[in-house]
Amino acid sequence: MKNKSVRKKIILALSAIGPGLFLIGYNIGTGSVTTMAKTGAEHGMGLFWALILSCIFTYVLMVTYGKVTLVTGRTALFNFKSEFKYGWMLSLYIIIALIIGELLALMGVMGIVADLVQEGIRLAFDGLVVSTFWIILFFSIILYFLLWFGRYQLFEKILTVLVVLMGISFIVVFIMVKPDLMTIAQGAIPSIPNTPGAMGLIAAITGTTCSAAVFIMRSTVVAEKGWGIDDLKKEKKDSLVSASMMLLLSGVIMAVAAGTLYVSGLKLDNTVEMIELFEPIGGKAAAFMLIIGIAGAGLSTIFPIVLIAPWLLADYRGTPRDIHSPLSRWLIFIALLFTFGTVFLEERPPALMVFSQAFQACILPAVAIPIFILINRKKLMHQYTASTKLNVGIVAVILFSLITTYFALTDSF
Question: Model's pTM, two decimal places?
């Protein structure tokens, strides 16, 4: 009876932070895993400060976007289109940029998941190799079936399971490899390594954590949850849980790579290499835990990515988010075709992921500046305009977004 009571409390707690869990599932995907693992392997915990800042700024913008949605009753892009003279142009730019970025990410995500599942099958069945094409086809059919019949509440439950599974897997691996805690603490001191690609990695950390898509999607999932103006405190707590979990899980991944690969002088160019390198350190158990964790991270990201086009269009038009409409189903089908990208491209999935995350960092100023204007507009927000503390936070995010955009552009050209 006591166990049932505890289980019930846990389920209630998880359902109360539904939008946060949805965004953790979206945010901590294979892009995060690849970027954090690559950063940890190449620079130890030297760029941990960039992750801390990104998570703080993620919290600030999540609160801001959630608050504007709850007070106005309208989603982000529809607000931009309605409230600014050329808002329709800004909204269309955000839609196009996010869809391009997410389709690039989708190719990398599914490519990494397929590579990892292929490696897991090889380890489990004495060298049996299954083509990544068949693995991708298998997952795509399951995803399309779920999206054809499912509702947001079902996706939230699936993502909750995947996020919990992912979190447990990474924490277990962290305990297995026992990285040095003093090294982790030293990484909180800001520094920029004088090595090629370091600035690009800072931009990628920002792009995968403080992601423009997260804030636009935040507005949508808060509206989808049916929260209103009375839920402002709940929305703030939900944002805090979400940003804290992002910091914990991303930090654990970076620390695992820093405490093993970095101290051994090993580089990471492919996510499957991570499994191969960990096997001698933690045995097959650690390898399988990593496969489960990273695959869970990837699949939890794919759900929101394939929903992004229909949800963004509904957001822009101010119409109900009906993923079962013919247009939405076609958009989801087209998005799932991009999951086969790495089967036909020579570019490896991790390289695609780091590039797509750095690309996301370039969109951040376009979502940070307009929301700063809107949340301070008395006519729109009435007595709920931003406090001085929140305004300082948003200005800091805008400055940070401009710096990381510069880093992304500098490292790309």
Answer: 0.77
Torsion angle defined by CA atoms of residues 363, 366, 367 and 371, in that order, rounded to the nearest 10 degrees: 170
Sequence-ordered alpha helix ranges (H) in 210-325: 212-225, 232-257, 271-317
Instruction: Write out pLDDT tens, residues 138-164.
Output: 988 888 887 787 665 666 667 667 667
Q: Is domain 28-186+195-412 annotated with CATH 3.30.1330.10?
A: no
Q: Is 170 helix (H, G, I), strand (E, B) or coil?
A: helix
Residue type, position 212, single letter: A
Residue 234 CB coordination number (10 Å):
17
Q: How far apart are CA 31 and CA 105, in angstroms?
A: 7
Q: What is the pLDDT of residues 212-265, one digit of tens each?
A: 777 887 888 777 777 888 888 888 888 888 888 888 888 888 887 777 767 666
Q: Give residue 371's Cα distance to chain centre.
A: 20
Ranges of each domain in the chain: 28-186+195-412
Determine the Cα–Cα distance for residues 27 and 34; give it in Å rounded to an integer: 12
- CA dist 129 and 127 (Å) reads 6
- CA angle centred on 299, ends 293 and 301, rounded to 5°: 105
Per-residue model confidence as pLDDT tens digits over 366-412: 889 999 999 999 999 989 999 999 999 999 989 988 887 777 666 55
